[in-house]
Amino acid sequence: MDLGLAGKTAIICASSHGLGRACAEELARAGCRVVLNGREAGPLEDTAASIRAQTGAIVEIVAGNIGDPGVQQALVQTAGAPDILVNNNGGPPPRGFRELDGEAIHAGLDANMVTPIRLVQQVVDGMVERRFGRIVCITSGSVKSPAAGLDLSSGGRIGLHGFLAGVAREVASANVTINFLLPGLFATRRLGGVMAFAAKAQSVDVETAEARGRERIPARRFGDPAEFGAACAFLCSAQAGFITGQSLLIDGGAYPGVL
Length: 259
Hints:
By secondary structure, the chain is of the alpha/beta class. It has helices at 18-29, 41-55, 69-79, 102-130, 151-171, 189-202, 206-215, 225-235; strands at residues 9-12, 33-38, 59-63, 84-87, 133-138, 176-183, 247-250. Helix 2 links the parallel strand 2 and strand 3 (59-63).
C-alpha cells in the first residue's frame, strides 16, 4: 500500500533504538524525510546510517535529551515544517511506588506527559495551516492495564492521553490527527529492565520470568518492533485521516478486556 507520505517530514523522538527506531525505519520506507533523536550521538549516527542504507531516505539527527527545551527547538528547526511527530520517551525504570520521592515523580511526569505536550504545541499550528498533520504518541499498555512497579509510567501517560484527547478533536477538521500506540511486551532494551523487576518480585531468575511473561500473552511471544513500526506508519498515512483520538493497544492479546 502506498501510504501517501512521499516527501513528508517526520520527527521521531527517542529513535536510536527500539520502538522509536522501528517507527523511523517504516516512515523512511514510506518516503519520508526523517529527523531522529536520541540521547547519545554515537548510536544515533549508527541508526541514521543504517536507515539511509536500507531506504535511501534523507535522515537527519538531533542528539540530546528530548526533555531539554533546546533539543526540542533544534528538532523542530531541523525538520523545518514537520508533517509528522512521533512522540516517544523512555519510561521511568520499574520501582515500587513507596520508593518514589517528589523529585522522581516530577521527573517521570515531565518525561512522559509534559515533554510530549510541549512538542505538540510547537508543531500543531503549522500542521493546521498546511491542512495535514499526523501525531502519534507512543505510551504503554499499562495505560489500559496498570501494573505494579510501573505506577509512575502509567500515571504520566494516562495524563497525556487525557490532555491530548481534547486537542485531537480541536484540530481534526484541519486533517490533523492525534493518536496513541500502546505497546505491550516487545523485544527491546526496555524489556530487560521489566523482566529483571519481575524476576525480583517473583523470586525467580530472569529466564523464568521471561518464560512466564510469554506464557501470559495469548500470542505466546514478545512483539517484534517491526510490527509496531508498521502500525505507526499506517496511523501517519494519508488513509488514516478519519482516525483520531484513538488508543491502539498492541500486546498480542494480553489485555483481557473488550474496551
